[in-house]
Amino acid sequence: MKIDNDGYYQDLDEGRYWDEVAEEDFKDSLRASREARTAKKRAIRKEVEKQLKAAGVQKSTHEIRGAKIEVNCLTCKSKFTARVADRKRGWAKYCSKSCKAKKQTNWSWL
Ligand SMILES: [Zn+2]
Questions:
Q1: Please, which pLDDT band fits residue 11 given cuts at 50, 70 and 90?
Q2: Average pLDDT score, the chain
């Protein structure tokens, strides 16, 4: 590490500067790609809504976003409606938060 006439760490300072530049660039590219993705999704949803409307189908945005199925809760066995997309992700196995908590809590210590 060199110390210049002012007595401060030139190398370190330069290194930090370029790190910051690289980080800013990285953040900018992340933000840009995220915005592009969001815009694309919005465009697709708009197009779907437009085509459904043209076909005379009346559906809420909520319904368009995901097909639903009836499933049984793993804890209380009662039926509830879950989104297919959630089931694919391994979610929506319980009818409620309390049922999920019951199944996932280890009661054996009692
Ligand atoms: Zn349940």
A1: low
A2: 80
Structural domains in the chain (count): 2
d(CA 81, CA 95): 8
CB of 53 closer than 8 Å to CB of 45: no
- Please tell me the distance between residue 95's alpha carbon and the centre of ligand 1 in angstroms: 4
In a domain, 3, yes or no: no
Tokens matching residue 32: 């840009």
- What is the pTM for the complete model shown? 0.38
What range defines the domain where residue 94 resides? 65-99
- Tell me, in angstroms, the distance from the centre of ligand 1 to residue 96's CA: 6
Q: How far is the CA of 20 from the centre of ligand 1 (A)?
A: 50
The answer to the question of residue 107 being in a domain is: no
In this structure, the answer to whether residues 20 and 39 fall within a common structural domain is: yes
If DSSP codes are grouped into helix, strand and coil, which group holds residue 94? coil
In a domain, 26, yes or no: yes
Distance between CA atoms of 37 and 24, rounded to whole angstroms? 20
